[in-house]
Write a structure and sequence with these properties.
The chain has 470 residues and is α+β, with helices and mostly antiparallel strands. The chain has a single domain, classed as Orthogonal Bundle (Cytochrome p450), CATH 1.10.630.10. The protein contains 21 helices and 12 strands. A 4-stranded mixed β-sheet has the order 1-2-8-5, sandwiched between helices. Helix 13 packs across helix 21 (419-436). The longest helix has 32 residues, at 264-295. It is globular and about 70 Å long. The structure holds protoporphyrin IX containing FE. This is Cytochrome P450. One of its GO terms (molecular function) is iron ion binding. Keywords: Heme, Iron, Metal-binding, Monooxygenase, Oxidoreductase. Belongs to the cytochrome P450 family.
């Protein structure tokens, strides 16, 4: 403690005094899911470099963020091993070893190439069609005798669109990665999301509080669920049949050099990782887009005009090939990704040698956080309206240049492998919803964001009045 507070080279970095002694201040804020908000306040108070733990520093200048993520391409923090299914066995997301990570990424990349992702469009569309049908069924109910439904002052049924979008993202990952939709939108009661959340929580507690380990028994439900899907696919393959999806690519993939594939445990673990990394992140972006558009009706109108002109034959003719180059749609999505990055609290790395970052000497094995939210809201970079929702900046400005200051999908060798997948999903879901339905805001809702690994609304709710668009 004395070393950390008075001798360590980090002692000269500004920050609350208590933070130089322990990470207690972070730990007590974790259960609320609002650590990121405290980090923002600290940057505001202490500037672009802040010490938040004895060996934990936040950096928010764009140069430091680029240095951490791209130029030095620093490794992930050692303690990430604690959230693996087996701390000894790494996955793509949790790998700390550079060579292992490179090999695994090379192995999985074919499942995420632009060409391959494009072939998943019919599978994504089938899940989105279920969503549209479900909302149409709800919106056709006009009788107030349906006690399960509430209606707004214009008589429109109110739906929790947040929950439906989250369910759709999970169904999409199920359909594309696992080979079968979980039918959450239709049924709403599949045990998988709850079991996955429970397992994640178990891993975090197991890692953070070693004395609780005897009480933190693993529930084998998710393992058995995924094993069953793999077994069924292998049986199908044995009959000479195959299915075009990510699971098939993961089963078939072979390392170019060693010709080895993944073993059963690795396949299972990797599929689980895609489920976690790929569902709440995309659905959060779609939800935030809807929330922002409903708060800015003139921008919503602009987007609907663009979509209606691009698809004069209505929503049935929607396709990604024609969607992907729509200027205003992309501007809206870019602006959402800028304003609401999934890694709200920053992207963590660990120094692998002593180095200078933003004018400070940072010793080996220090946790350094790239505060991407601050870069993406910097008034110097984005202007006085940095905190506003202004899709137009992506049309009026040089969007290629602006994108250099966006780190929502990470950067460097750890860039999100699912970014093309996510972009296609966000475009398709958003465009389908807007072309099929009209939404009316319900006033006075709790729209506070929380982050427990992935971000979401604290209330898990965004209620809207809904009507089919004519
Ligand atoms: C809007 C949606 C998404 C956002 C904002 C997002 C964000 C990110 C970020 C910031 C990272 C880097 C984390 C780090 O460097 O520590 C990352 C990595 C990753 N993401 Fe995504 N993600 C999204 C969607 C997806 C989807 C759809 C999938 C898979 C289907 C996915 C799978 C992964 C994986 C496997 C990694 C680890 C890559 C590596 O370490 O090489 N993500 N994501």
């Amino acid at each position: 403690m004395v070393y950390n507070a008075y001798i360590s080279p980090l002692r000269v970095i500004p920050g609350p005094k208590l933070c130089s002694l322990s990470e207690f201040s972070i730990m007590i804020r974790r259960p609320e899911g609002r650590v990121f908000e405290w980090f923002y306040q600290l940057h505001h108070k202490y500037g672009s470099v802040v010490r938040v733990g004895p060996k934990f520093i936040l950096f928010s200048s764009k140069e430091a963020v680029r240095q951490i993520l791209v130029i030095n391409d620093l490794p992930k923090i050692d303690s990430i091993a604690g959230i693996r299914a087996d701390p000894e066995i790494a996955t793509l997301f949790s790998a700390t070893d550079r060579i292992f990570h490179k090999q695994r990424k090379r192995l999985l990349s074919p499942a995420f190439s632009i060409k391959y992702i494009a072939s998943l469009e019919p599978l994504m569309q089938s899940c989105i069609n279920v969503l549209v049908d479900r909302i149409k069924t709800i919106s056709s109910i006009t009788s107030k005798s349906d006690l399960a439904l509430k209606f707004n002052e214009n008589g429109l049924p109110i739906v929790n669109i947040h929950q439906l979008i989250q369910a759709t993202s999970l169904d999409i990952i199920g359909e594309t990665a696992f080979g079968e939709s979980f039918n959450l939108v239709e049924k709403g009661d599949h045990p998988l999301p709850g079991k996955v959340f429970q397992e994640l929580k178990r891993r975090v507690l197991y890692h953070t509080f070693p004395y609780m380990r005897p009480f933190l028994k693993k529930d084998s439900w998710t393992d058995e669920f995924i094993q069953k899907i793999i077994k069924e696919r292998r049986n199908l393959n044995a009959q000479g049949k195959t299915r075009e999806d990510i699971l098939q690519i993961i089963l078939d993939t072979r390392d170019e050099v060693t010709n080895e594939g993944l073993n059963e445990f690795e396949i299972q673990d990797q599929i689980m990782e895609f489920l976690i990394a790929g569902s709440d992140t995309s659905s959060f972006s779609i939800n935030m887009a809807l929330i922002m558009l409903l708060h800015h009706p003139e921008k919503l109108r602009k987007l609907i005009n663009e979509l209606s002109s691009a698809f004069p034959n209505g929503p049935q003719s929607l396709n990604h090939e024609n969607l992907k180059d729509l200027k205003y749609l992309n501007a809206v999505i870019n602006e959402i990704l800028r304003r609401f990055p999934a890694a709200m609290g920053g992207i963590l790395r660990q120094t692998n040698s002593g180095m200078m970052i933003d004018g400070y000497f940072v010793p080996k094995d220090t946790i350094v956080s790239a505060s991407i939210y601050q870069v993406q809201h910097s008034k110097e970079i984005w202007g006085v309206d940095a905190d506003e929702f202004v899709p137009e900046r992506w049309i009026d400005g040089d969007s290629v240049k602006l994108k250099r200051n966006i780190f929502t999908f990470g950067a460097g060798s750890r860039l999100c492998i699912g970014n093309n997948f996510a972009m296609m999903e966000i475009r398709l879901v958003l465009a389908s919803l807007l072309l099929n339905f009209e939404f009316e805001m319900v006033e006075k809702q709790d729209l506070q964001i929380v982050q427990f690994i992935t971000p979401s609304l604290r209330s898990k709710k965004f209620d809207v009045g809904i009507r089919v668009r004519n």
